[in-house]
Amino acid sequence: MKYIKNKFLIEKFTVENIAKKYGTPAYCYSYNRLKENIVNFKKSFKSFKPLICFAVKSNTNINLIKEIKKFGLGADVVSMGELMMALKAGINPKKIVFSGVGKTANEIKYAISKNILLINAESKSEIKEIERIAKSNKKKVEIGIRLNPNTDAKTLSQISTGKKGNKFGVDSKTFLSLTKYCKKSKNINLRCLSVHIGSQILDHKPYEKMLKVLSNIIKKSSYKFDFIDLGGGMGIPYDKLRKKLNFKKYNLAIKKFLKINSSTIIFEPGRSIIGNTGILVSKIIYIKKNTQKDFIILDAAMNDLIRPALYGAFHRILPAKKKNKKIKKKYEFVGPICESTDKFSSIKYSQELNEKDLVIIHDVGAYGMSLGSNYNLRLKPVELLIKNSKITVIRKRQTYKDII
Q: Which residue of 49, 194, 287, 301 lies most exposed, with the fewest beta carbons within 10 A?
């Protein structure tokens, strides 16, 4: 994805031509970038050969999950729907981990019936429910227990999951009592210690602290875990001034951990696999001039990409066509939805924009379409995969007939 002769291309196609044929707003994904991310991730941790389970919540397009499956990845799911999607995409059940704090009885029954690798439980009540269902089905179910390590991931408060005030996992004392409980159970086989400290993490140090907590709890439990599920959370630099997460240092920390604790590592990456593969192409409908700034009103809105409204997250917005004349102007990029939070960013721009111009919102592959909605009864956009010099529609643009 780059500019050639002042025109923005995703692989070999200009954004202008894509918009002309498929309309806007449009999600476009680069297969080459997806492949590069998976290959780099595997290479970074090849010394201990982890089981990599793609976090389906980050992107739920079945066609993309099928492509990810071809690289041998499993799936991390957090609902029955995601589990069904992963299975339909052809992912091996023995490479699927079911996470989440509020699994219903129906979801647990379904997961047990599909013989997935692990159900990662997050409370004593959940473990008892799994045990009850397993007993009624005369099965022994393999589970993990999610520990809350009280580790600050130094990320946005809305996506922090590993501090004691967060709803996820159990504290150390409860974890130790649950390992003892599971040992006595005839219908539960405890195989995994699971942890996940947050999302969009760009510093390896919180992971190092997390691994020290895990070492201590394993020592106290005197339990041999077949799997250590380290979750995901690896971030991407949405702002090009930010540095990438140092996989090399994280890899060294895990290798050090494994010298003491011999287990298979599970990763649950989502954003680091799919985040930078996607762009959202949008057209400027109107420009509303203001004394302080000009409002750039796009045909994309918070129902298409809610991250800025939900988290105050930043996404770069670039023109589809660069102009040689440089200016300094403050623009606020907004959508047409009747909410003040329906805005993407307020930035100083180096070129003048005009109505009908196209812009590109970057790094939307993760938590873009998967968080999309029909708010204001707006149609969900088309999704396109660019692979081998070919554009494939991997999800059609919704019609009003679909939703009304």
A: 49
